[in-house]
Amino acid sequence: xxxxxxxxxxxxxxxxxxxxxxxxxxxxxxxxxxxxxxxxxxxxxxxxxxxxxxxxxxxxxxxxxxxxxxxxxxxxxxxxxxxxxxxxxxxxxxxxxxxxxxxxxxxxxxxxxxx
Length: 115
What we know:
Distance between the termini: 40 Å
Low-confidence stretches: none
């Protein structure tokens, strides 16, 4: 089992940037896939981006060209750099770890994009 703690959320104006971080309680080398999901009020949770142990990553169409996911195995952290933010990016963002076939979730961090 692994514990996940997100940070970096907040209020930002449209066109601005935020960097989210997820700290894991153990080595990322023991976790096959790390990812970021988001959930807006009244909507289902959706994948934003994920990354495998050796760096292969995938993005939702809405995130391509604006968001970048990365991992630092030495620091046991996964980050999501978000640029050119839009109001529709407003959501609670969750860090996810897939350990085998078992998903583990962080508590979430709120991102609000508004002028």
